[in-house]
């Protein structure tokens, strides 16, 4: 079986680790000679940026580090055992952003990536080199090789006399410096009209047996992947059932500030509202099925009526076992569809 996942950083990484574990267990239970399922992960590139002369791909690296087992599980991002000596020097030089710390080990990744980009490799080729270092058990693919860095149009009355003053800043500045507190008016992915899915991405969707949407940010993670011309077409064309997992439980985001993003695009922070935003594939949307938490069981009937078969299961990925069980629920729901 070929499983293709659309994913952002931290929510994506937790889900994909669980999926990899579930696939391993199924392969072991199948006995000797059982071929493991193939997992392709299509990774959001909207958070990417140039900073201090190097190219950062935060969601790609979150997945890379988590799947390699070298991530900082306490902090929830970056490398384990990280130091920040270079960041302290950069601050002295006034280079980079003082509120955006680049760890030393993490900088090693960015330097390697930037060096290969300078040699003429594409982001996909760079991503392939980075993941050769570890036995990940899944294949990570940047959604596009075009730079589509997300910018946020915000209302910022303090920046001028005009109470309606707006300005545009990089997503990472809005998210990390302002903790998503400046009211967002719109998210704009640079170059998105000219972007194409990276090589193999549309094929991974169209050739899959199951397509899963990780419980990632619906606006700036999944939303950016969907905005790349060609991705929605691939989702429409695939013979595979497409099943999504809600990042919202009981009207709240589980971690992070995705509610600020949803509010900005006029979608309620609610599991059923996110499913309706994605829409049923029967009417031009992208979903064949949707998983909500048991706390949102009332969404089942509502969404079935909108043509989105929905199951309520535990959605909190507290540990690897819970993440694996969630992946199993997603695969099992997919098996009943289409
Ligand atoms: P980011 O790129 O690091 O922001 O991560 P993602 O876009 O992949 O995921 C962010 C989303 O993951 C947030 O909206 C969270 O609500 C969601 N999330 C995080 N942990 C969990 C969890 O344990 N269960 C579920 N269902 N969602 C989660
Ligand atoms: Ca992200």
TrEMBL record:
Cited InterPro entries: CofD, CofD-like_dom_sf, FbiA/CofD
Top class in the EC scheme: transferase
The keyword Magnesium is annotated on this UniProt entry: yes
Enzyme Commission number(s) of this protein: 2.7.8.28
Keywords from the named record: Magnesium, Transferase
Source organism, top-level taxon: Bacteria
Molecular function per GO: LPPG:FO 2-phospho-L-lactate transferase activity; magnesium ion binding
Protein name: 2-phospho-L-lactate transferase
Organism of origin: Agromyces protaetiae
